[in-house]
Amino acid sequence: TLHTRPASSPTTPARAVPVAVSVPVAANPAPDAAPAAAARPRGVQTLDLLDRGSAPRRTLRWDLAPGQRELHRTVMITETHTSIDGEAIDAGPEPDLITDGELFVEDVSDDGEITIALTVTPPNADGPITGAYRMDTRGRILAVDGDNSALLEQHARRMQLLLPEPEVGVGARWSVASDCLLAGARFEQVVTYTIEAMDMERIDLVVESKVLSNTEHPLELPGLPTGATANIRSTLQQVTGRQEISLNRIGPVLIEN
Fold this sequence. Notes:
Blueprint: E1 2-6, E2 15-16, E3 46-51, E4 69-76, E5 82-84, E6 87-89, E7 97-108, E8 114-121, E9 129-135, E10 141-146, H1 149-159, E11 173-182, E12 185-198, E13 203-213, E14 217-218, E15 231-232, E16 235-245, E17 254-256
Parallel strand pairs: 2-4
Antiparallel strand pairs: 1-4, 1-17, 3-11, 4-7, 5-6, 7-8, 8-9, 9-10, 11-12, 12-13, 13-16, 14-15, 16-17
């Protein structure tokens, strides 16, 4: 579960299991572009509008103001189950991985381009990573600049949901295809959003995420002996959850997977 809150609010940890996240993107093509991995260059995100939903419909756009500040905390709880030749191996409990971040709206241009300063402190890091990203009102990340642009963009993508171009209503469905980095390997991720309810303040979404690959990928795993390698031959990971957003908040109000 991921919670965001105004900077003046007390810091209350939110616990969750973020299994699949959106990742670095560049430009976004037309809303009817199909999320086909073969046609999408690496690093580019595409949106496919599957259903506009029922009337009344409205245009969804991020509506942020300069000076907004939010804090967020993500807690990832990991359980590992390992077996060799059918015999279970007790690897012991995994420590919770906590990521803290701060978001600040630096500027909103006349044409709606939004600049957000981002500070992220990953688990076990020596210190925070700082930078900024620019996005349009649909949530397309236009540019990222900072100490570690790949990590910052991954967090930016987690905060900003890519919105459809036309007006949509309750029942609207759209899918977003992008690359996903897991353990150093790059996979295809397709996330489908369905509007379950919405009013002028908040939007409740059902989220279905699929990470898949049919090709072999090398993995970057800590602790491997010198000369040893690890590979994933194929992957299919499916996650269903819920997300609550407010278009005048920088990040999601709630994410549950």
